[in-house]
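User: My instructor asked us to take a sequence, write out its structure as tokens, and then describe one feature of it. I'm not sure where to start. Here is the sequence I was given:
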Amino acid sequence: MNNEILLVEDDFELAILVRDYLTKNGFTVDMIHNGTEAVTVIQQTQPDLVILDIMLPDKNGNQVCREIRDFYHGAIIMLTALDDDMDQMLGLELGADDYIIKPVQPRLLLTRIRTILRRMNLGEPANHTVINAGELHIDSGNRLVKVAELRIDLTTAEFELLLLLAQEIGQVVDRNSIVQQLRGFEYDGFDRSIDRRISRLRKKLTSDSGFEFIKTIRGKGYQLCTGEQ
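Assistant: Let's start with the prediction itself. The structure tokens for your sequence are:
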């Protein structure tokens, strides 16, 4: 069964080119050209992945991302302008899994899509792993995270990042390893998407006592610690 992708892009020529390219590579692609309609269609159809342009008529991509994260748990790739670092940051903070800078490079987009969908293991039974780190409880099979029995809602990207750190609990995981495993390419020294994702995840996981489970090890990477350390 082909993975279903919803492309939300108001540039008709670009949308058709992307749709045709992804269709040739085995995906089922539907197109929407405005933000308001996109919210309705995503809620009704729950596609495997949404490609969401920032600049849309009547409702921009960040507004759409904010609205759909309450009911949509699939993957979101944002399309952003070359110099729009603030848009990239906001999109990731609102729950986007990745971003592509325009002009769109079809092969790069295809690689990012395949990486995200492979990570999500769509249509395959999940390996059931339970990890306990002090007050932090992670159940990979049910994609469940709790801190001191309080359930924490994470996006797909946040959950996969946490699971990656949890598999090396107590050890420092460097940025390059994280970028390679979660985004499918080597860290170039400039990409800040993982840092922003770490920041969001750290805020969500901070316990009532103020303990931060994720530590930044300057110049090296990140470390998941237990509340007992």
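For the description part of your assignment, you could build on this observation: The chain is about 40% helix and 20% strand. Try explaining in your own words what that tells you about the chain.
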